[in-house]
Design a protein that fits this description.
Blueprint (H helix, E strand, L loop, with lengths): L2 H11 L2 H9 L14 H7 L3 H9 L14 H8 L2 H9 L14 H7 L3 H9 L14 H8 L2 H9 L22 H19 L2 H9 L14 H7 L3 H9 L4 H13 L7
Length: 265
Amino acid sequence: MDLNSDLYKAAEEGNLNRVEELINQGANVNATNSSGNTPLHYAALNYRSDVVEKLIEKRVDVNSKFSYGKTSLHIAVEKGHLNVVEKFIEKGLYVNVKDSYGNTPLHYAARNGHLNVVEKLIEKGADVNAKNSNGETPLHYAAEKGYLNVVEKLIEKGAYFDAKNNNQQKPLDISGDYSQVSTFLLNIEELFNVAKEGNLNRVEELINQGTNVNAKDSGGETPLHYAAVGDYLNVVEKLIEKGLTLMLRIVIATLLCTMLLCIIT
């Protein structure tokens, strides 16, 4: 009997009792088959969270690589298996680990539209602006696939709306097949432009349409920064009024008071 082969099968099927039995008989939890896969990879791929937990308990190598340099975390994220993802993170897996193409788990979550996984990864420190070998960020993937809720979440968490890939394409440039995503990103781009110009009426219109006033460009700046640089105080007031976080309000109030232009009471 080939204990290791049986362990692959038991892990894939989620047969916890059989997994425990085989391990007790001497099966190697880190054994790789001809495809380079381990029992943990199969458990992660098939949403076998109890088996994942057992293998981790038995000191399986959680950082072992799957095809294309994927780790078990990449696999669980790709499949949207939140419980498994949480178990891996609890065990200290690096949330910004990259596959052979430079993709992080957040790239995988964004590309597959798994909003709950996106939120969990960001909560645990995932870099929303990480770039793969093609210069693509998770926002590029979400925009390209038309996942508006993921696009909104990434922007909310600080993803640069105008990040460029190696072909100098922004997320907006590759979202053409999805009008809601295109409109969302286009409105953000326009808000930056009209804030720079001091166009208060258009700023108000965009805000009323729900445009995120806290969106950031690739320099890490918000529309407020450009309005302040242009000395457009009416636009600054409107942006502050319509959605800045408490922390940003405090920072801006301090800055403006220092400039003897305190407009927040």
